[in-house]
Amino acid sequence: AHAIENARFTNREVQAGYLTTSEVNACSYCLAAHTALAKMNGFSEAQTFDLRAGTINDPKLGVLTRLTRSFVKTQGRPDATLVDAFFDAGYAQAHFVDLVALISVKTLSNYLHNATDLPVDFPAAKALPEAIAA
């Protein structure tokens, strides 16, 4: 297990961050694995789409996924209003550091898979519906 999985985020928050990072990095293996793990943590298939797109209808998970998307898309230079929203949602400075670690760990996995294209041994994650694809 990664250290981040023993950090301050809940299992659901960890899966939300992993799914979001894997979506932005277009990693089919990690999307498949974390879709399965997200479902094991109580998310529906539709909610996994919303997590990946940053459109989840939950205040804390919504800001977590939108900030994660911003971090990954900007190579670590997230939108300041999303950072403020993250803290306004009740997350602490330690969560912010944990989020950077979560993104870093998952980006490593994403890049390794994207570079090697190993076979996916989980059921493939479905493409985002066009209505919510970003």
Distance between the termini: 31 Å
Which series of helices and strands comes N to C?
A: HHHHHH
Compute the average pLDDT: 91
Instruction: Determine the structural class based on helices, strands and strand pairing.
Output: mainly alpha
Strand-residue proportion: under 5%
Task: Outline the biggest β-sheet.
Answer: none
Helix content: 55-70%
Please give the radius of gyration in angstroms: 14 Å
Contiguous helical run count: 6
How many β strands by DSSP?
0
Low-confidence stretches: none
Q: What is the molecular shape?
A: globular
Indicate the topology.
Blueprint: H1 11-24, H2 28-40, H3 45-53, H4 59-73, H5 80-88, H6 93-116
Helix pairs in contact: 1-2, 1-3, 1-4, 1-6, 4-5
